[in-house]
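User: Hi! I'm working on a homework problem where we have to compare a predicted structure to a textbook description. Could you give me the structure for the chain below?
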Amino acid sequence: EDTTTDEVVAGLDLGGRTAVVTGATSGLGRETARALASVGARVVLCGRDPDKLAAALDEVGAGAEGQLVDLGDLAAIRRATDELDGRLDRVDVLVNNAGVMACPLARTADGFEAQFGTNHLGHFLLTARLLPLLAAADAPRVVNLSSQGHLLAGVDLDDPNYEQAPYEKWEAYGRSKTANLLFTRELVRRHGDHLLAYA
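Assistant: Happy to help. Predicted structure tokens:
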């Protein structure tokens, strides 16, 4: 069944709630941010390109703020979360949407295989550093966007960066999406008494 974002949020009032959405400069992230803002949420759009972020903010309109962050750079994530901690008193909803898919072999700023490093490790660090702001909210939610791609491969902790085995872009994507699911399960196990986590 096809359901639009506007149908999903119909009847909701998210006034007074704060949402942080990664990968919010295009696609699902931008549409998620727009829908949340349309029902009153304060939405922080996260993206790595200043021009695309400015364009997304213009489209989303009232209730939208921007935050530059490159999820392929752990130092950039630390800087961004420090900035968010300085301007937000809580995070009610964290949508970990940003990602790369089936790209040629590349490395993050810290040397990780790009899909695992961006799709999983970047969001892992972002979420971990935002946990105090999530803890300050009433019934916070974390949404980690996975996909059916998780069926392609499990996580290989013996060679996560393809330093031994030949690189295969779809396998690498599958590994990152499986990691998203496992991360979600562990969030529930450790913090499920306070927050709801979905994948």
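For your comparison, note the following. The longest strand covers residues 42-47. The radius of gyration is 16 Å. Good luck with the assignment!
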